[in-house]
Amino acid sequence: MRRRLAGGRCAVRAPNVSDGVFGVVGARAPLAFFSRLERIGHAYLFSGPAGVGKKTFARRLAQSLLCEAPKTALLGYCERCPSCRLFAARTHPDFVESEATIKIGKEGGSAQHDAEFSARDLVRELSLHGYRSRYRIVLLGDVAFATHEAANALLKFFEEPPGGVVVFLTSDAPGSLLPTIRSRLVEVAFSPLSAADVASVLVADGIAGDKARLAAEVALGSITRARSILDDDASGFREAAFAWFAHAASGERPDGGFLRLDDRSLNGAQKRAVVLDLIEIVRTAARDWAALTLGGERTTLLAADQRERFARLPARNPSALVALLAGAAESERLARTNVSAGLVVDHLRMQLAPR
Ligand SMILES: [Zn+2]
Predict the structure, then answer these.
(1) pLDDT tier at 232 (50, 70, 90 boundaries)?
(2) How far is the CA of 48 from the centre of ligand 1 (A)?
(3) pLDDT of 257-276, one tens digit each?
(4) How far apart are CA 351 and CA 355, in angstroms?
(5) Which of 32, 61, 64, 207 could form a disulfide with 202 if both were Cys (CB 3.0 to 4.6 A apart)?
(6) What is the Cα–Cα distance from 206 to 247, expressed in whole angstroms?
(7) 330 vs 300, more confident
(8) Crossing angle of helices 195-204/209-218, nearest 10°?
């Protein structure tokens, strides 16, 4: 049942899909989808590349559902009612967000992380009713599947969803979800952001305009990647990744220490994100190498600062470079499945090695 307007006055303006009143950039299709929706369902999967605002969108949607101001649409919140104030203070009793990866499906995995949300937590959170609101909203960000217990908790929830409980899951690798779970979720796809959208977020972060635009151009639609490019500038990740590429392409054994794949404080999703960053840099390098080979030394490069490094690489014929690009794309596909980060890096290294 939809909430009726009190006194015929609408206190909350429905977000305008084109001007970003909802406080998210991009997300045009999800905004359009939820703008048309009259009633919220039980469970949604927000899928799409990392860093395009899936979790931010889920939080805004949760705040919209919990907002106590009279409204005509699902989307939009007032920022003034008691519920919105609790939400802003991160103390709303009817909103739960998992802080870390939910392990649903792999037994005996390295799931002993303090911050982890256990299967038992999940069962409890999914069975409670709203405390002060008619909704109780559970946001499971970057969900990765690990124990059968947790998968069963979710399946049980789908069979008999308690009234008012809404679950949002986000994933950049929806193919790794169990089909029995994925088929019960309404999937809402998020697209990469435009470079202008990414730049606007970076500028709002306090990054200077020129630097923001440059990072946005090479971030391929991901705010997370743009931020990590700016951080990597400082941490040396980008430089280490180009060096890794050059060693692998020369048939030497590259030093992968900067990837921190042995670091037990990082979870599977974090390692996958690191490997995806490496693959992105390798693909850029491989494109530049192919461009130099085909177009000669005056060719414009994506990573212009790496020109000398690429020029020192041993020559390779064009068909081998095409095969290398295809191989790197295959590594990226693997990285988005349950294959371990270490195996993906080995796969990538083999694609680069001279035959
Ligand atoms: Zn409100």
Answers:
(1) low
(2) 28
(3) 889 898 888 888 888 888 99
(4) 9
(5) 207
(6) 36
(7) 330
(8) 140
